[in-house]
Amino acid sequence: NAGVTQTPKFRVLKTGQSMTLLCAQDMNHEYMYWYRQDPGMGLRLIHYSVGEGTTAKGEVPDGYNVSRLKKQNFLLGLESAAPSQTSVYFCASSYSANTEAFFGQGTRLTVV
Amino acid sequence: AQSVTQLDSHVSVSEGTPVLLRCNYSSSYSPSLFWYVQHPNKGLQLLLKYTSAATLVKGINGFEAEFKKSETSFHLTKPSAHMSDAAEYFCVVSPGTNAGKSTFGDGTTLTVKP
To answer: CA of A100 to nearest chain B CA: how many angstroms apart?
Structure first.
């Protein structure tokens, strides 16, 4: 059971560089999410998707873009990385809005 | 509007003693409530959830939580702590109708002393 898989697990970027984080789930879930986790702040929702081809903004969407071209994949893009985007990023998926979310292992991103 | 407050940022207990992690919430809806656990360098894992059925919810690894509407609380308990329970715990409130509206608490770090 793979569940939710995130790649890469670690990345160091220079300010201004771009990158894409990939999230893949094999549970046929409609809902997918991208969160960032910063010390003492819990998880904050960046963007989410309620189905293939749909995306919506979360609490902290600025500086990020997402795409859901296939149901099983949810991509998070940083077009021009900034040090404030140094964080641990988690992808999650769920069957519906109020059911259990399954989380990936996280991506630790450092922007220098 | 909704919010969730985890009343303790750190809790320390001795192995074999009870665990109490406190969570208060506010919500304009009848919410769904969740507790997740995060071990170091891992993703979050669901411990238990409340979705308007029984108010006393049993979860994995001996944890349980009681939904108290009058007190707007959803505290997590375990009768006897184990070393493997050391982790960070998150309380989450969701209105249930909008995937983008779940709110996470700031987390409680549980330390278990031998």
So the answer is: 7
Q: Looking at the complex, report in whole angstroms how far the Cα of residue A89 sits from the nearest Cα belonging to chain B.
A: 10
Pairing of strands B19-21, A107-111: unpaired
The span from the CA of B40 to the CA of B107, in Å, is 13
Minimum distance, in Å, between the CA of residue A50 and any CA atom of chain B: 7
The answer to whether B100 contacts A56, with C-beta atoms less than 8 Å apart, is: yes
Which pair of structure tokens corresponds to residue A50?
Answer: 């309620």
Q: Which of B34, B43, B90 sits opposite A42 (nearest CB)?
A: B90
Q: Which residues touch A51 (CB under 8 Å, ≥6 apart)? A: A30, A31, A68, A71
Q: Please report, for residues A77, A96, B36, B47, B59, the alpha-carbon distance to residue B64 in angstroms, rounded to integers and kept in the order given.
A: 38, 23, 12, 8, 5
Select from B46, B98, B105 the Cβ nearest to the Cβ of A100. B46
Residues 6 or more apart from B107 whose CB is under 8 A from it? A40, A42, B6, B9, B38, B88, B89, B90
Q: What mean pLDDT comes out for the span B19-26?
A: 96
Structure tokens belonging to residue A71 = 């149901």
What are A50-90's pLDDT values in tens digits? 999 999 999 999 999 999 999 999 999 999 999 999 999 99
DSSP code at position A40: T
State the burial class of residue A29 (Cβ atoms within 10 Å of its Cβ: 0-12, 13-18, 19+). Answer: buried
Tell me the C-alpha distance between A9 and A77, whole Å: 15
| CB of A100 less than 8 A from some CB of B | yes
How far is it, in rounded angstroms, from Cα B110 to Cα B12? 6
